[in-house]
Amino acid sequence: MQKILIISCLLFGLVIASPVMAAPFLVSDPNPGAETAVIIINDQEVGEFDCLADGSIHVDLAQFNLPDGEHTYKAYAKNVWGQSSVSDPFVNVKIVPASFTGLSLSN
Hints:
107 residues; alpha+beta; five-stranded antiparallel beta sheet
């Protein structure tokens, strides 16, 4: 019984210690009263997303398949009474690393 417990703990530890690669998310501060958010990328509305319970957003950017380069993000909040003004822009550069060059052996 102890062996099973020890093995289980070790396996659980390996799972917890494993690196996790997550897609970047567009997030916001809480926005009381916001029910949905319209996301704008490079001056084009890309969709309307449900806000979290506190009115913030947490949108997975991987779904947009953005090309490498600079991207400008904005959003506005909506509820049954209307919508907010558009947020200030957030600019980010998506860079996928190039292949390594100059590989060699060293001692």
